[in-house]
From TrEMBL, chain A:
It holds the Pfam family Adaptin_N. InterPro entries: Adaptor_Complx_Large_Subunit (IPR050840), AP4_complex_esu (IPR017109), ARM-like (IPR011989), ARM-type_fold (IPR016024), Clathrin/coatomer_adapt-like_N (IPR002553). Residues 942-954 have a biased composition (Polar residues). This is AP-4 complex subunit epsilon. GO terms for biological process: intracellular protein transport; vesicle-mediated transport. Residues 778-795 have a biased composition (Low complexity). Belongs to the adaptor complexes large subunit family. GO terms for cellular component: AP-4 adaptor complex; endomembrane system. Residues 95-642 form the Clathrin/coatomer adaptor adaptin-like N-terminal domain.
Automatic annotation (TrEMBL), chain B:
It is found in: Cytoplasmic vesicle membrane; Golgi apparatus. Gene3D superfamilies: 3.30.450.60. GO terms for cellular component: AP-3 adaptor complex; cytoplasmic vesicle membrane; Golgi apparatus. Keywords: Cytoplasmic vesicle, Golgi apparatus, Membrane, Protein transport, Transport. The lineage of its organism: Eukaryota, Viridiplantae, Streptophyta, Embryophyta, Tracheophyta. Its main location: membrane. PROSITE patterns: CLAT_ADAPTOR_S. The keyword Metal-binding does not apply. This is AP complex subunit sigma. It comes from Raphanus sativus (Radish). The keyword Membrane applies. It comes from the Eukaryota. It is a peripheral membrane protein.
Length: 986, 168
């Protein structure tokens, strides 16, 4: 026996895991757990004694083929556990490796010993040490006839070897033999190895045996054979493509476990090709029905739920099959309804099924009743105390708002709570939700929140993601240019090294191009505000390189344009930058180019230029720089200073960064020369792409790299410009502004679950929200440009009109949104909720109108005002409305009134407090913004139809239909895409 | 698909690590360390989920559960249900508890191969194979019985001496 003392020592440190089986996380006290709890006495000594006995027993039984280990292993584990440092651990492990090396070479090792050696080897490798010397011994063990050694051998090789390892070739033969063994446990062990060790080349060697096993007598073997085939399919779909019918057949296996296993490969197959499996919809529905009706043997119950894992898999499969398919979806309505009714939401697994139902409903063509049930389930999740359920609730909400956008509204406070939760996972999920529901009315609050969070975290991976989301939202929905620049400054300042270089190029382009309207005044204002903000920021220490590049460029182009700042002031600042960041050549290059521009503008306008002494020093230093690029810039600058005004003006014309440079990309002027060369026997040119066939110029990173290293003068040919985006080259720096393609990135995490419908709806979302977009992607603007090209007056008139309608009816609507149960909610939070979900305010609308957009409606269109407010707030951003369900709202007037009172008081005492928005000056306005929540979320323009829709219920489909109608009739020209909802309606 | 199953103690020592796609030893270590540093920084009473794209690539989620001195961790992709995975951990622990009667960290350390046997019955090639712990235990017991038989038949004398050695 190993010394009791050792065991005791170890035991004192260990706690029994089982005692926590019924931790607070385990949802619902099910029978099994409570049994365990009862079985375990609470006093530790007893438990430990029992524990000691167990281990002692195991050790004693070691020789009988149990799982016990010898004292050496015990000592090894113990000493590693006690080691104080990594070095000490390494020393122990190295000694152990030496011992094992020696022992494995001994002849005639008893099998049990051999097994233990190999297990020690696995253990060592798990700790991160190299055990490759023992691989061959593990391989040899798989050849052994005894099950003990064979299984150990297989276990070790599956953990040690990669499927392309050289030693695999020594195992394939054994696997083949074992797959044919009479002993089903040997077969199982071999199948286990097949999953891990067989690569594409060796699949044919074992495939026939595995297929034979599909009809094995033991269901355990059939299950594993299916899984192995599934694995083959994942590795090399072509190798098993002729066997796909087997999966269909195995769906009818008389063992439910085998049927359940078959769902795994079918899920993969169906997600690759939905249409070939449409015929299975009815089978899946009937299987699910049978499962929910408890037709399976009782042993498949788990926590009183019938075969929950099978149910979940089936729901996933059906979500795939019925996505966008009305008839298939309709077949599922009944069973889904049943599930909502039957699911026990007190257990974890019951909630798992409920969540899966929500997910399924968000994919299929839903019925109104199902949507309602899903919304109920979500609200139960969100109201729960469990963070897990809240997380699921937020996730479900994010899925459902794509279909029925008014769902989020009732949960706004819960969402705000999640946003402030200490749980990081939940917070991120909530940000994802906010990202999905951002629109021009709430973009400021959401982006501000995101930036605050971005600043607070250290995780670079997530920081990058959230930064790019901020940029994307800011580009899409920015209410004003000043705001946009502020946001970009913050993003650059705090995550400058993480954002894509294209963001910087885009920002420069925005500043250069301005509104894209013929409003020079506004453009100049924008530039001046940019210059001012940069001059403030520039002296802060340690700015990211990319940000400095933007700053230098903007200061160079527009620093002196307004006449507010003198050339020497700006050039002094630029020299400071070049000095402070002397190790960053890119920044220096930008700074020198900026200096050159400033001097050029000075010379061109006929003023006398005095080069500051520090500039002179800088130029001289750079003339001798190691970097040829910097050298060239310095020489160019020096040469330019010597030229006269006329020459300088033609080299660097003022504010010409947006002018297109004519580039003869075919180099047609060389045709004659080429002709001549070919005539005299030269080989005609074959493009690089044709030569290698592999060269991908679109490679993201190489491009980036390229731009960083040769930021100014490029000597290679430009990439072919994309036809839709005219290449915007800056005259001076000759940096081609690349097509802004970074925006596709942030979508990835959301859409990777890659269900068709999700992709569809993300597309929809983009189009939906395109309306306020002022910069960014030309491709998305194309659809909106049509509406903006309508005569401005007409557009204005109508938009004002509809805005008025929106404003009045939103203010008239009784508040139907808040949870009436919580009247004592923190007013701060309520205001935040209002701004997130409603988010319109006077100050914004003022800004809006000043920025050339809409004119605030003066409440002239109070057509539908049932409860006229003293000062209906214009809500120019509201594109639409969901009607207040005037009928349903009546039932709940009291809570609303209550809340109104609350809001009033809150906005009174918090008028000047530091809310994110802090924009609710008057109670009425707050009310309006809260009310406008619904309308914001549904993001369509129903306002004009308000009167006729008094009976609208929660039926979102009807609403969509009406919407589409409204759009088709062109009643509301502010909306962007009339065809939008046609897609949804099929 | 399930990408990895890990069991580690609260000091960050791995107890079981199984990756369903091959990874080099160094990479495995890196991931184990990464997961541990995230887990150890999480407060109590928060959700059991983590989005862990930064370690395991896009669309990776992690579910963990803290029992006594151990973290049980499952890493998987978007085709699995988080709450169901949480229950899978329950299944695993429940099974282990039945196997070892009052399972503790020591049991897992010393019964490394049995641990793997249990795990292989529950998760197979990255897919959930069996969630009924009784079935799992039945299979595991059958295996150990046969292993014992195969061992004793071929090696009677040594096994006897081993038995004596153990009993001494």
């Amino acid at each position: 026996m190993p010394s009791q003392a050792v065991l005791e020592e170890l035991n004192l440190k260990e706690l029994i895991i089982g005692s926590e089986l019924s931790s607070p996380n385990a949802h619902g006290g099910n029978v099994a757990w409570s049994l365990i709890r009862r079985r375990k006495p609470n006093n530790n000594p007893n438990r430990k004694m029992e524990q000691l006995k167990t281990i002692g027993r195991e050790l004693a039984m070691g020789s009988q083929g149990g799982f016990g280990q010898s004292k050496e292993f015990l000592d090894l584990v113990k000493s590693i556990g006690e080691s104080r440092s990594k070095a000490e651990e390494d020393r122990i492990v190295l000694t152990e490796i030496d011992t094992l090396k020696r022992k494995l070479l001994e002849p005639d090792i008893p099998k049990r010993k051999l097994k233990e050696h190999i297990i020690r080897l696995v253990y060592i490798e798990m700790l991160g040490h190299d055990a490759s010397f023992g691989y061959i011994h593990a391989v040899k063990m798989t050849h052994d006839d005894s099950l003990l050694l064979k299984r150990t051998g297989y276990l070790a090789v599956t953990l040690f070897l990669d499927e392309d390892h050289d030693l695999i070739i020594l195992i394939v033969n054994t696997i083949q033999k074992d797959l044919r063994s009479d002993n089903y446990l040997v077969v199982c062990a071999a199948l286990n190895a097949v999953c891990r060790l067989i690569n594409e080349e060796t699949i044919p060697a074992v495939l026939p045996q595995v297929v034979d096993l599909l009809s094995h007598g033991k269901e355990a073997v059939r299950k594993k054979a299916i899984m192995a085939l599934h694995r083959f399919h994942r590795k090399s779909p072509s190798s098993v493509s002729h066997l796909v019918s087997n999966f269909r057949r195995k769906l009818c296996d008389n063992d439910p476990g085998v049927m359940g296993a078959t769902l795994c490969p079918l899920f993969d197959l169906i997600s690759e090709d939905v249409n070939s499996y449409k015929d299975l919809v009815s089978s899946f529905v009937s299987i699910l029905k049978q499962v929910t009706e408890r037709r399976l043997p009782k042993s498949y119950d788990y926590h009183q739920m019938p075969a929950p894992f099978i149910q979940i898999k089936l729901l996933k499969i059906m979500a795939l099959l019925s996505s966008g398919d009305k008839s298939a979806s309709e077949m599922m309505y009944m069973v889904l309804g049943d599930l909502f009714r039957k699911c026990d939401s007190s257990t974890n697994i019951g909630n798992a099924i409920l969540y899966e139902c929500i997910r399924c409903i968000s994919c299929i063509v839903p019925s109104p009743q199902l949507l309602e049930s899903a919304a109920d389930a979500i609200s139960k999740f969100l109201k729960s105390d469990s963070h897990n359920l809240k997380y699921m609730g937020i996730d479900g909400l994010g899925r459902l708002i794509k279909i029925s956008s008014d769902i989020a509204e009732q949960h706004q406070l819960a969402v705000i709570d999640c946003l402030e939760d200490p749980d990081d996972t939940l917070k991120r999920k909530t940000f994802e939700l906010l990202y999905k529901m951002t629109k021009s009315s709430n973009v400021e609050v959401i982006v501000d929140r995101m930036i605050d969070y971005m600043i607070s975290i250290n995780d670079n991976h997530y920081k990058t993601e959230i930064a790019s989301r901020c940029v994307e939202l800011a580009e899409q929905f920015a209410p004003s240019n000043q705001w946009f620049i502020q946001i970009m400054n913050k993003v650059f300042e705090h995550a400058g090294d993480l954002v894509n270089i294209k963001v910087a190029h885009n920002l420069m382009r925005l500043i250069a191009e301005g509104f894209g309207e013929d409003d020079d005044d506004a453009d100049n204002k924008l530039r001046l505000s940019a210059v001012e903000s940069y001059l403030q920021i520039i002296s802060e220490p340690k700015l990211p390189s990319l940000f400095l590049q933007v700053i230098s460029w903007v200061l160079g182009e527009y620093g002196t344009a307004d006449g507010k700042y003198s050339a020497s002031y700006i050039s002094g600042k630029l020299c400071d930058v070049a000095d402070a960041y002397s190790s960053d050549e890119t920044v220096k290059g930008y700074a020198v180019s900026a200096l050159m521009k400033i001097y050029a503008f000075e010379i061109a306008s006929g003023r006398k230029v005095d080069v500051l002494p520090e500039c002179q020093t800088l130029i001289e230093e750079l003339l001798a720089s190691h970097s040829t690029d910097l050298q060239q810039r310095a020489y160019e600058l020096q040469a330019l200073l010597a030229l006269d005004a006329r020459a300088v003006e033609s080299i660097l014309p003022l504010d010409a960064s947006c002018e297109d440079i004519e580039v003869d990309k075919d180099l047609s002027f060389l045709n004659g020369y080429i002709q001549q060369a070919i005539e005299s026997g030269a080989q005609p040119y074959i493009s690089e792409r044709e030569r290698s066939g592999m060269f991908e110029t679109t490679d993201y990173h190489s491009q980036d790299h390229h731009e960083v290293t040769s930021h100014a003068l490029r000597f290679e040919a430009y990439e072919l410009p994309k036809p839709s985006v005219p290449s915007q080259a800056s005259t001076t720096a000759l940096v081609p502004v690349p097509e802004p393609s970074y925006y596709s990135e942030p979508h990835q995490p959301i859409s990777t679950s890659s269900s068709v419908s999700e992709r569809e709806s993300s597309e929809i979302k983009l189009r939906l929200d395109g309306v306020k977009q002022k910069w960014g992607r030309p491709s998305y603007q194309s659809s909106t440009s049509a509406s903006s090209s309508t005569p401005p007056q007409a557009a204005n008139g109508t938009s004002t009109h509809s805005d008025g309608g929106v404003a009045s009816s939103s203010s008239s609507r009784p508040r139907s949104s808040y949870e009436p149960k919580k009247p004592e909610i923190n007013p701060e939070k309520q205001r935040l909720a209002a701004s997130l979900f409603g988010g319109s305010s006077t100050s914004r609308s003022d800004r809006k109108s000043s920025s050339g957009g809409h004119k605030p409606a003066k409440g002239t269109a109070n057509r539908a005002a049932t409860v006229p407010k003293e000062n209906p707030t214009p809500v120019p951003d509201l594109l639409d409305f969901d009607e207040p369900t005037a009928t349903s709202g009546v039932a709940a007037t009291d809570p609303f009134k209550e809340l109104e009172g609350l809001m009033e008081s809150s906005s009174q005492d918090g008028g000047g407090s530091t809310d994110v928005m802090g924009l609710y000056g008057a109670p009425v306005k707050t009310t309006t913004s809260v009310d406008s929540l619904l309308s914001e979320l549904s993001d369509s323009s129903r306002g004009t139809y308000h009167q006729s829709q008094t009976t609208k219920g929660p039926n979102s489909k009807e609403a969509l239909e009406k919407d589409a109608l409204v759009r088709q009739m062109g009643v509301n020209p502010t909306s962007q895409n009339p065809t939008l909802f046609k897609d949804l309606l099929g | 698909m399930i990408k990895a199953v890990m069991i580690m103690n609260t000091q960050g020592k791995p107890r079981v690590a199984k990756f369903y796609d091959f990874l080099a030893v160094e990479k495995q270590q890196e991931l184990i360390r990464g997961v541990f540093s995230v887990l150890s920084s999480r407060p109590d009473n928060v959700s059991n989920f983590l989005e862990i794209d930064s370690l395991f690539g896009p669309d990776s989620r992690l579910v963990y559960k803290h029992y006594a001195t151990l973290y049980f961790v499952l890493v998987f992709d978007g085709s699995e249900n988080e709450l169901a995975m949480l229950d899978l951990i329950q299944v695993l622990v429940e099974t282990l508890d039945k196997c070892f009667s009052n399972v503790c960290e020591l049991d897992i350390v010393f019964n490394y191969s049995k641990m793997h046997t249990v795990l292989d019955e529950i998760v197979f090639g990255g897919q959930v194979l069996e969630t009924r712990s009784d079935e799992v235990i039945k299979a595991v017991e059958e295996i150990s019985k046969l292993e014992a038989a195969s061992n004793s038949i071929s090696l009677v004398p040594k096994s006897v001496s081993g038995w004596r050695g153990g009993g001494r």
